[in-house]
Design a protein that fits this description.
299 residues, flat, alpha+beta, 49% helix, two-stranded antiparallel ribbon
C-alpha cells in the first residue's frame, strides 16, 4: 500500500468528487515537525538526504519521478529533528461511488457517497532537469551499507528494478534499464530484435486464436513456445534482480508457455481421436460392404 503525503494535487483530486482530503497521522506529524523547527535561518540549516530515486512508467505510458528522503531541520537553539518521507511525487486519485437522490425541489441529482477505489497519480514528470534537482541531495560516493542513494525503474504496479547509477537512470531508455539495470552498448540492435520477436509472437497468437487449420495452430503454438522460451533464457542470462524476487513478467511468460503446451497437446489428442474414429468408421463401412456382398451372392 502506497503512503501518500498531503499535496496540492491530492487535495484537488478529492475536490473533483466533492470530498475533503483525508489527512493522515503522517501528514499531521510532518506539519508539527515543520512548525516546531521554524527558525530565522531555516533555509540554510535544513538538510535533505535523498535515499531513493525512482523513474516510473505510469499506466498512461508516460514517465515520472518519485523519491524518498530524510529531512533534518534545526530550531533556533540548535536542536535537530529528522523525518523520513517516501513516495514523494505520488498522490491519491479517488474513484467515487455515485448514488442518485432527489433534492428539495424533486429534481434528480447525483452525488458521491463513498470512495470505491484509490489509484496512484504522479506529480513530477520525468526529465533530466527535474531528476538533477532531486539528485543534488543524493549520496553516491559511499558504500551501499553506508547509505548510498538507490536508483530504480518501475512499471506501474510491478516490482522495481535496481539501476546501477544516476547517469544510467537519466540517460538510459526505460525498457533498456528495466531489462538490464544499466545502459548496454548493444541495446539498439537488441531493441530491433525484440520488436521483430513481438511482431512474430503477435502473428503466431493470431493464428493460434483464429485459424481453423489445426496443423497451422500447432505450428503457431510451437513457434510461440520457442519465442517465450528464448525470452526466459535471455532474462535468466541478464541476471536482473527485481526487488522482492523474480520478475512478474517472467512468471507470466512461463505460465503462457505451459498453457500453450497444454493447448497443443489437446489439439493433437483431438486429431488422434478423430483419426481413430475415421479409421473405425472406415472399417465399419468395409465390414458392411462385405456383408452386403455376401448376402447378394447368396441370393
Amino acid at each position: 500500500m502506497v503512503n501518500y503525503w498531503k499535496s496540492p494535487e491530492g487535495i484537488k483530486a478529492y475536490e473533483k468528487i466533492g470530498k475533503p482530503y483525508p489527512v493522515t497521522t503522517y501528514d499531521t506529524d510532518y506539519e508539527q515537525f515543520v512548525n516546531s523547527t521554524k527558525s530565522s535561518d531555516e533555509r540554510n540549516r535544513t538538510k535533505r538526504k535523498v535515499t531513493r530515486i525512482m523513474r516510473v512508467q505510469g499506466a498512461d505510458g508516460k514517465e515520472y519521478l518519485t523519491y524518498s528522503e530524510v529531512e533534518t531541520r534545526f530550531n533556533d537553539i540548535g536542536n535537530s529533528y529528522s523525518r523520513f518521507r517516501e513516495n514523494i511525487g505520488t498522490y491519491p486519485i479517488p474513484e467515487g461511488h455515485v448514488v442518485l437522490y432527489y433534492d428539495n425541489n424533486g429534481e434528480q441529482q447525483q452525488k458521491v457517497d463513498s470512495i470505491s477505489d484509490i489509484k496512484t497519480g504522479y506529480s513530477i514528470p520525468f526529465n533530466s532537469a527535474k531528476a538533477a534537482a532531486i539528485h543534488k541531495n543524493a549520496v553516491d560516493d559511499v558504500p551501499q551499507r553506508a547509505g548510498r542513494t538507490e536508483y530504480f525503474v518501475q512499471r506501474a504496479n510491478d516490482p522495481p528494478v535496481s539501476v546501477e547509477s544516476f547517469q544510467d537512470l537519466v540517460n538510459g531508455e526505460f525498457d533498456e534499464l528495466y531489462k538490464h539495470g544499466k545502459r548496454v552498448p548493444g541495446w539498439p540492435e537488441e531493441k530491433k530484435q525484440a520488436q521483430a520477436e513481438r511482431e512474430q509472437l503477435e502473428a503466431a497468437r493470431e493464428v493460434r486464436d483464429y485459424s481453423t487449420d489445426e496443423d497451422q495452430k500447432i505450428r503457431a503454438i510451437n513457434l510461440e513456445s520457442q519465442i517465450t522460451t528464448d525470452a526466459i533464457e535471455a532474462d535468466d542470462a541478464s541476471n536482473i534482480k527485481h526487488e522482492g524476487g523474480q520478475s512478474d513478467a517472467l512468471e507470466v511468460i512461463k505460465q503462457e508457455e505451459q498453457e500453450n503446451k497444454e493447448i497443443a497437446e489437446e489439439i493433437q489428442e483431438e486429431q488422434r481421436e478423430r483419426l481413430e474414429r475415421q479409421g473405425f468408421d472406415q472399417q465399419q463401412d468395409r465390414n458392411s460392404s462385405k456383408q452386403s456382398t455376401k448376402k447378394a451372392s447368396k441370393k
